[in-house]
Amino acid sequence: MWMMRLTGRKAVGEVDSVYAWLRLLAGVLTSTIGGVGMWSIAVVLPTLQADFGVTRADVSLAYTAVMLGAVVGGPVMGWLSDRFGITVPVAIGTVMLALGLVLASQAATMWQFTLVHGLLIGGGTSASFGPVIADISLWFAKRRGIAVAICSSGSYLAGTVWPLVIQPLAQWAGWRHAYFGIAVFCLCSMLPLLLALRRRLPREAGRHSAHLGARRAGAFAGGGNGLQLLLMLAGVACCIAMAMPQVHIVAYCTDLGYGPARGAEMLSLMFGTGIISRLSFGWIADRIGPT
After folding, report:
1. Which residues of 126-147 are buried (b: 16+ CB within 10 A; e: fewer)?
2. What is the 3-state secondary structure (H, E, C) of the chain?
3. 4 domain-assigned
4. CB 159 within 8 A of CB 39
5. Residue 36 located in a structural domain
6. Residue 54 has what pLDDT?
7. Higher confidence at residue 283 or residue 149?
8. Which domain holds residue 280?
9. What pTM does this model have?
């Protein structure tokens, strides 16, 4: 009996541990690298329009396809994470993302480019966002708010860093070579990060963390389901407001004569300031609760 108690305490001790913070770092890097699929189109949008000889609306449809792919891929990747652990969906997503970027770089028509983004890049990107955040939330109790805020900032870090990489790379080598090079980088960097995510949370620690989460969710009408619905509605409302400026800022700066480089810098600045907001609210949540 005392051995069971000791083992239980040790398992619960995994939560908020040094390893949990190291795992958080690996999760942020995974989200940052994998997030390239969401912002690559925005940076090269004017170039794509000229290369394929299509309207801006046609190119924007490819970004819509990425988001729809993420909508479908997110729950699937989350289910895989619940069943097999986070490494399985991230590994699958990494291969999908890399393959999608390679095939997109070889696309001869706009519909091929859009299809690849919806089926592969969108689905692959989804593995490095929601499932990674959900996994990290289980490894923290006292500092769950700031931990989730840090992890969710991976997508904003992607929007901060990748435009400053993609724009000069595409200008120097062309967007097709840029896509291919990024695919190789994602494959070679994200798969090794899985080594830091292999450990599974012990059942005792998982139940302890889930119990704390249920207590917090109980403050909302409808409990966990009500909170889930509120988060979904908030996410839709938030992204509707962000979608137009984030996707079209580079093209708009090009139209105004400032050039794509300035547009990429503005996009990066937008996401950089967003990181400050996310971290601030995560810190607040730890001190006064999510309500």
Report:
1. bbbbbbbbbbbbbbbbebbbbb
2. CHHHHHHHHHHHCCCCCHHHHHHHHHHHHHHHHHCHHHHHHHHHHHHHHHHHCCCHHHHHHHHHHHHHHHHHHHHHHHHHHHHHCCHHHHHHHHHHHHHHHHHHHCCCCHHHHHHHHHHHHHHHHHCCCHHHHHHHHCCCCCCHHHHHHHHHHHHHHHHHHHHHHHHHHHHHHCHHHHHHHHHHHHHHHHHHHHHHHCCCCCHHHHHHHHHHHHHHHCCCCCHHHHHHHHHHHHHHHHHHHHHHHHHHHHHHHHHCCCCHHHHHHHHHHHHHHHHHHHHHHHHHHHHHCCC
3. no
4. yes
5. yes
6. 93
7. 149
8. 18-197+226-288
9. 0.85
> Distance between CA atoms of 170 and 47, rounded to whole angstroms?
9
Please indicate whether residue 148 or residue 208 has the higher confidence score (pLDDT).
148
Q: What is the pLDDT of residues 97-125, one digit of tens each?
A: 999 999 999 999 999 999 999 999 999 99
pLDDT band at 291 (very low <50, low <70, confident <90, very high): low
CA–CA distance, 143 with 68 (Å, rounded to integer): 32
- Residue 141's alpha-carbon distances to 18, 138, 200, in angstroms, are 13, 8, 16
- Determine, yes or no, domain membership for 276: yes
Q: Can you read off the two tokens belonging to residue 87?
A: 């490494």
CA separation for the pair 117, 110 (Å, rounded): 11
What is the rounded average pLDDT for all residues in the chain?
85
How many domains does one find in the chain?
A: 1
Report the distance separating Cα 272 and Cα 172, nearest Å: 25
Q: List pLDDT tens digits, range 156-195.
A: 999 899 999 999 999 999 999 999 999 999 999 999 999 9
- Asked, for residue 6, whether it belongs to a domain, the answer is no
Domain with residue 245: its CATH number is: 1.20.1250.20
Burial call 220-237: b when 16+ CB within 10 Å, e when fewer? beeeeeebeeeeeeeeee
